C-alpha cells in the first residue's frame, strides 16, 4: 500500500468562540473560509462543537445534505419539522437526510453540563430526496478497543448501521492506551479517500506506525483502494476517541 497521509492540525482549523458555542471547523464553514479546505470528496463539514448549558442552535433550515451528529459527552435536544423530538446522549448518532428541506433545532437543555459533539455534513448523490430521520446508539463497550461500523451506503447497509445516500462509510472507536485496531478500506472503486478525526478529549493516535495525531487533529489519506489496511494504535496515556470516514 502506498497511502499518502497529510495531517490537519487541530490549531489550523477554523475557530470561533461565541460564548455559548465553542467551535472548530475542519472545512470552510460560516465566517471561516479557506480555499484549500472546502471539503474532501462528498465530506463537506466536520465541526467539533461544545455548547454551554441552556443554550443552543435555534430553529434553522437545511436542504440537500446528509447531516449527522456524533455525541461525545453531555446531552443534546433535537427537534425538527418532521415532528421528531429527542434528547441525545453519549454514544448516540443522530442522522437527518435533509433532502427537499427540513427545519431543526439543536439545544443543550442540561442546566449545568456542556454538550460536546461532532457535526458532520455529507453531499448525497441525488437531489430532492425525501427527508428522513434516524438515531442509533453505539455503546461505549462496543467501541472500546474496536472499530464500529456506524454509517454505510443505503444500498448495502443492514440494521446495524445507518444508511446514507452516497458511497460513504463512517466508523468510530474508543482505543485504550497500547491497543490497536485495523480498518480495511471499503468500496468497489479503484481509488478511495479516508479522513480520520481524533476528538478533542485527550489521547494520541498512531496511524500505520508513522503519523501521530494529537487531540483535535485529523488526517487526509489518499492513494488507497478497496482492501488496503490502515492500522491505528493508541500511543498516549488516555483513551483515543476517533472517527473514520471512508469514501469514494
UniProtKB/TrEMBL annotation:
The keyword DNA-binding does not apply. Fe cation binds at residues 60, 62, 104, 106. This is Pirin domain-containing protein. PANTHER family: QUERCETIN 2,3-DIOXYGENASE (PTHR43212:SF3). It comes from the Eukaryota. The keyword Iron applies. GO terms for molecular function: metal ion binding. InterPro entries: Pirin, Pirin_N_dom, Quercetinase_C, RmlC-like_jellyroll, RmlC_Cupin_sf. The lineage of its organism: Eukaryota, Fungi, Fungi incertae sedis, Mucoromycota, Glomeromycotina. Belongs to the pirin family. Residues 12-122 form the Pirin N-terminal domain. Keywords: Iron, Metal-binding. Its cofactor is Fe cation. Binds 1 Fe cation per subunit. Residues 155-247 form the Quercetin 2,3-dioxygenase C-terminal cupin domain.
